[in-house]
Amino acid sequence: MTMSARVVLVTGSTSGIGEATAQRFAEMGDSVVFNSRSSVEAGERLAAATPGSLYVRADIANPEECEGLLHRVLERYGQLDVLVNNAGVTKVINHRDLEAASVEVWREIFEVNVFGTWQLSVAAMPALKESHGSIVIVSSAASVRPTGSSIPYAVSKAALNHLTALLAKVVGPEVRVNAVAPGLIDTPWTADWDAVRGFVQSVAPLQRSGTSGDIADVIVGLTTTPYMTGQVVVVDGGLTLAI
Ligand SMILES: NC(=O)c1ccc[n+]([C@@H]2O[C@H](COP(=O)([O-])OP(=O)(O)OC[C@H]3O[C@@H](n4cnc5c(N)ncnc54)[C@H](OP(=O)(O)O)[C@@H]3O)[C@@H](O)[C@H]2O)c1
Q1: Measured between alpha carbons, how far is 71 from 241 in angstroms, rounded to an integer?
Q2: pTM of the predicted model as reported, rounded to 2 decimal places
Q3: Is 81 touching ligand 1 by the criterion CB < 6 Å?
Q4: 227: which DSSP letter?
Q5: What pLDDT does 4 receive?
Q6: Which residues contact 15 (CB under 8 A, 6 or more apart)?
Q7: How many domains does the chain divide into?
Q8: What CATH number is attached to the domain comprising 97?
Q9: What is the pLDDT of residues 53-83, one digit of tens each?
Q10: Measured between alpha carbons, how far is 122 from 132 in angstroms, rounded to an integer?
Q11: Atom of ligand 1 at shortest distance to CA of 111?
């Protein structure tokens, strides 16, 4: 199979890192499936502007909607080569405010970030085995440093790092699984995080926050690196060297 024949599903791709990643794959000639939970108009617009692509609304936290998403992809293209588990949620909570990080908050975050990633990966595995494809999981620098928008969020991303290793161990040799752990990236998610941005500019060796394109480049690279599996690549302008 040539690289241009790939079919790539990017979850949470109507905005930010997911959108930039889907666009990068499309620029390389891949067929891209856009997805989001609620921003249907943006998804339809992106798909209309991207030849050979498809938009499917689905909440990755919902098992039936995950199955439906996979069904639509296979019905349209007959194969899946790359799954980018990018969709995620958070709640900004000061780490010292233990009461605010209620079990309900933990559940909401884990439902999407961990359980959603798990169930979509499992549902996609037969197709990925057939295509000898790969999975890229979007983690966070908060998974490896005691930082991040809230404790439940950081722990959910640490769980994804271990999931990356455990999954990679059992789905080879057909399927590779890697993760990217971004530092502070300029997306709608972080639009009003000026204080954090200022901090990153002052302590990170590369003295800037990242762009969605910075992360998209690494995600695309992980799908074309045939001898790498089970790894978490931190992409943060060196921020974790300083905190
Ligand atoms: N920005 C950063 O600094 C940063 C740093 C480290 C890691 N990350 C990670 O990068 C990923 C993307 O973040 P971003 O900054 O690009 O965020 P963003 O611009 O807010 O985009 C999030 C995307 O995910 C979709 N989404 C949310 N929940 C979903 C669900 N249950 N099912 C399907 N789609 C869902 C959103 O669409 P709808 O809401 O319309 O459904 C949107 O398309 C997240 O996993 C985040 O944890 C971001």
Answers
A1: 43
A2: 0.98
A3: no
A4: T
A5: 53
A6: 36, 39, 42, 187, 188, 189
A7: 1
A8: 3.40.50.720
A9: 999 999 999 999 999 999 999 999 999 999 9
A10: 15
A11: 31
